[in-house]
Amino acid sequence: MCCSGFLKIMMFVFNGGIFLAGAVILGVGVWVKVDSGSFLGLLEEVEEAPNDLSQLVNVSYLLIGVGAVLLAFGFLGCCGAIRENRCMLMTFFIIVLIIFLAEVAGAIVLLVFQDMAEQLLNDVERQVIISIKKKYGEDDKMTALWNSTMEELQCCGYKNYTNFDGSPFYNRSELYPSSCCTSNSICSAEEANKSNIEGCFWKFLKLIEQNAVIIAAVALGIAALEIAAMVVSMILYKQIGNKA
């Protein structure tokens, strides 16, 4: 009886961790979706982007889905332990096992993607620059996305300020965005060249690499909780069966 009570407590602890992790991942997914000034928003504006990179725009939906599933099954595991319901415990075990395998695979893919990030960003360079030259200063949404991104990341253009040459904004004023200059004066070609602000390419690369490591680490941490929860759920499952 004492052992059964201890196992229930452990089940609560592990599933509580899974539940909280699901809430955090769900919150991050909603934040990424709502954050219109993000890198993902810029990707949506790029025409003919490589398939591997364009799939990143769906990352918010993936995070929301994973978070919701973890919330639901963290709750299911707790209910199964309280009610000593073998069916719920077995359902919990099978589905968490599937999620566990998917998370491990996802973490591996993220770590591989981290190594491929620079190549993928290089592949999309031409399309991004064409998009800037065609839309910056004319398309309000795209212009606002670039302005907020450059201001937030403290960068200029994709590779440098010359990416804005020939854009509607430059053609009207023969000036560059204020983010391309360090001084508060008019951002002319001379001033932009002197300021030598780093292109957003390198900021994007750093952002992807850092986030890939963090997400992979979180996924592996949740996977460890899931292993513990699956072990405890099976022990409880057998104990309840022996009582019957």
UniProtKB/TrEMBL annotation:
<dbReference type="InterPro" id="IPR008952">
    <property type="entry name" value="Tetraspanin_EC2_sf"/>
</dbReference>
<dbReference type="InterPro" id="IPR018499">
    <property type="entry name" value="Tetraspanin/Peripherin"/>
</dbReference>
<dbReference type="GO" id="GO:0005886">
    <property type="term" value="C:plasma membrane"/>
</dbReference>
<dbReference type="InterPro" id="IPR018503">
    <property type="entry name" value="Tetraspanin_CS"/>
</dbReference>
<keyword id="KW-0472">Membrane</keyword>
<feature type="transmembrane region" description="Helical">
    <location>
        <begin position="89"/>
        <end position="113"/>
    </location>
</feature>
<dbReference type="Pfam" id="PF00335">
    <property type="entry name" value="Tetraspanin"/>
</dbReference>
<protein>
    <recommendedName>
        <fullName>Tetraspanin</fullName>
    </recommendedName>
</protein>
<feature type="transmembrane region" description="Helical">
    <location>
        <begin position="12"/>
        <end position="32"/>
    </location>
</feature>
<keyword id="KW-0812">Transmembrane</keyword>
<feature type="transmembrane region" description="Helical">
    <location>
        <begin position="59"/>
        <end position="82"/>
    </location>
</feature>
<dbReference type="InterPro" id="IPR000301">
    <property type="entry name" value="Tetraspanin_animals"/>
</dbReference>
<comment type="similarity">
    <text>Belongs to the tetraspanin (TM4SF) family.</text>
</comment>
<keyword id="KW-1015">Disulfide bond</keyword>
<feature type="disulfide bond">
    <location>
        <begin position="156"/>
        <end position="180"/>
    </location>
</feature>
<feature type="transmembrane region" description="Helical">
    <location>
        <begin position="212"/>
        <end position="237"/>
    </location>
</feature>
<keyword id="KW-1133">Transmembrane helix</keyword>
